[in-house]
Amino acid sequence: MDIKSINNMLDKTLVQGGSKSVEAQNSQINRQNDINQQLKEELKKLDKNQIESLLKGIKEKFDYMNKYLKIEIDKDLQEPVIKIIDKKTNEVVRQIPPEYLLELAKRIDELVGLLFRKEV
């Protein structure tokens, strides 16, 4: 997979959104997870110059839309969180994974921790 195909996947992800039914949201989450997994696998194959070129292209696209990309690591889950933020309002336009999924994952981790503590 080359940089253009990764950019196309990002374009498709950015265009999606709006209010949807729960079923449609679950389907979208599954697609996002698939795209994230593909991106991780493909980024492992890229060299430094290709990654820099990819990031430059992504930055140009976000500049055109008057938005910027912020990547953080969740403190509790140690997982990357990608946010698309509007430059004018500083409001989060899109977050991958969504906040409710992060909260769900944290709750599941807590429950698993409780189960193991009671067994010991």
Automatic annotation (TrEMBL):
Q: Which SUPFAM superfamilies match?
A: FlaG-like (SSF160214)
Q: Does the keyword Coiled coil apply?
A: yes
Report the leader peptide range: none
Any coiled-coil regions, as ranges: 22-56
Q: Which residues cross the membrane?
A: none
**Keyword Cell division included in the entry's annotation:** no
Q: Which UniProt keywords apply?
A: Cell projection, Cilium, Coiled coil, Flagellum
Q: What is this protein called?
A: Flagellar protein FlaG
